[in-house]
Amino acid sequence: MPANTYLVKFEYGHGAVYGLVRADSVDHVQLAGPELVILDQLPECFNASDVADLTKRVIDLATLGHKSLVEEILLSRLTSSHV
Q1: What pLDDT score was predicted for residue 65?
Q2: N or C: which end of the chain has fewer CB within 10 A?
Q3: What is the pTM of this model?
Q4: What residues form DSSP beta bridges with 9?
Q5: Rounded alpha-carbon distances, angstroms, from residue 10 to 18, 33, 41, 81
């Protein structure tokens, strides 16, 4: 993954949604989305298509403004056919 880009997971009870977040640090991601799990590596179940889909919808904390990071991850998932 590119520098300063973090793989996150939001667990919602019946599964999980993944996203890539661009931020200055892990601490910034945790502050913006304390309910998110930050992953060190891709889940084994991911395939090349899943990875390509994630990289198309990176969320940049610098441009997020007052929006919810979790909400943006969920919305980006709705526009995707994968993870």
Answers
A1: 85
A2: N
A3: 0.86
A4: 18, 37
A5: 6, 9, 15, 17
